[in-house]
Amino acid sequence: MDPLKTNEGNDTFTQENKFRKTTTARGATKPSNAFVGASWCALIIGMASYCIGLFNAGAMQLNEKGYYFTILLFGLFSVVSVQKSVRDRLEGIPVTDMYYGISWFTTFASVILLIIGLWNADLELSEKGFYGMSFALSLFAAIAVQKNTRDLKTFEKENPNA
Predict the structure, then answer these.
(1) Helix, strand or coil, per DSSP, at residue 95
(2) Does residue 24 come out as left (phi exceeding 0), alpha (psi in the -120 to 50 range) or beta?
(3) 95's torsion region: left (phi>0), alpha (psi -120 to 50) or beta?
(4) Which residues have CB under 8 Å from 6's CB, separation 6+?
(5) Is the predicted pLDDT of residue 84 greater than 60, yes or no?
(6) How far apart (Å, rounded) are the C-alpha atoms in residues 33 and 12?
(7) How far apart, in whole angstroms, are the C-alpha atoms of residue 36 and residue 43?
(8) Which of 151, 105, 121 has the alpha carbon at shortest distance from 60?
(9) pLDDT tens-digit profile of 58-67?
């Protein structure tokens, strides 16, 4: 018996199946509570750290802080819109090419505007990296939260007793 194979009739394969996502007949999956919680934590940590950094940036003028805060909000909305339009297309829900393209354009625009702002900012390199990383964490987490929210709603709709 090869110890690397899990489908030879031993209990390992059965135990691994216990940890897989719950799937319905139509294929809707319910994300694990751990993934949902980790996604929300990442979003809160990313946004909070970005905003706390802006609040504590003593050398930055108020209009600069407003610019960076607006970029964060713009980016978050854009990635949620991209996630929704991509998912709609995969599920056969009609999405116009114009909306799909605008969603991607605004996502790239928010990232480029942040890069341009940080490039020209009078900040330490470590501060620029901090804003870039917390921005990226926030965008990624927003996509994950949107995906989880949609998956949970779909799963609940298909499994009212679950």
Answers:
(1) coil
(2) beta
(3) beta
(4) 12, 13, 16
(5) yes
(6) 23
(7) 11
(8) 121
(9) 888 999 999 9
